[in-house]
Amino acid sequence: MITLRPSKERTHIQNANQNTWMTFDPESNTDPFKNGFGALKKLNENILAPGMELRPFPTKSNMLVLTYVRKGSVLYKGPGGGCFRKTNLRWRRSDPK
Q1: What is the pLDDT of residues 32-65, one digit of tens each?
Q2: Which of 7, 49, 57, 88 has its CA 20 to 30 A from that of 76?
């Protein structure tokens, strides 16, 4: 079964440096998918202003991070880091150890 999540149902957070659309909102009591969808617990779209950082978030050792760069480039710092340019797709295991 396919479950649709229209954009208007996603939580939108905007500030001067970043726009975030959260598909699953763990802080919402009305979101039926607040705990995710099966094994998928977080699906966020982040748009950053030039020169800005995406702040680290608590991770679990079994978490994979997918990065797709639509415009410009993203610089990962730390293990497995590097510069990813437009249209690059990158999978990275997030391990807090």
Answers
A1: 888 888 888 888 888 888 888 766 666 566 677 7
A2: 7
In the chain, the percentage of residues whose pLDDT exceeds 70 is 77
In order, the DSSP letters of 1-29 are ------GGGSEEEE-SSEEEEESS-TT-S
Q: Which amino acid is at 78?
A: G
3-state SS class at 68: strand
Domain regions of the chain by residue span: 1-55, 62-97
Q: How far separated are the first and last CA of the chain, in Å rounded?
A: 37
CB 76 within 8 A of CB 52: no
Identify the helix (H) or strand (E) that includes residue 93.
Answer: strand 89-94
